[in-house]
Amino acid sequence: MKADMLQMKVGQTVSISKRSQLVAVFLLAIVTTGLYLNSFPNQFTNWDDQMIYSNWQTRSLAWENVCKIFTYVRGSTYQPVRVLSYAVDHYFWGLNPLGYHITNILFYILTCLMVFLTLQKLSFHLRNDPPPDSHFRVGLFGSLLFAAHPVHVEAVTWLAARKEGLQGFFFFSAFYLYLKAKEVGGRKKIVFFGVVLLSFLLAILSKPSAVVFPAVLLIYEMSSKQKRWVDSIKTHGWFFFLSLLLSLLFAFVLIKVMLDAGGIKAYHGGTFFNNLLVSFYIFLYNIKLLFLTINYSAAYTLPIPNPIVGLKTLLFIGITFLLFGMSLWSLKKTKIIFFSFFFFFVTLLPYLNLLPISTILADRYVFISSFSYCFLLGIGFDRFYRVVDRRFSERFFKLLSGVLFLLLLSGYSFMTIHQNQVWENSYTLWSDAVEKYPENNTANALMGAVYMELAMDEKAAGYLEKAIEILPMDYQSRNNLGIVYGRLGHPEKALKELVTALMLHPDNETIKINLALHYQRQKDYGKSEEILKFLQTKKPQDVQIRFRLGMLYKEMGRYEKAVSEWVKAIDTAPGIPKLYEEVGNVYISCMKDIEKGKDYYTKGVEAASKSKLKREELRWMVQDLECHR
Question: Which of 302, 480, 496, 303 is CA-nearest to residue 463?
Answer without folding.
Answer: 480
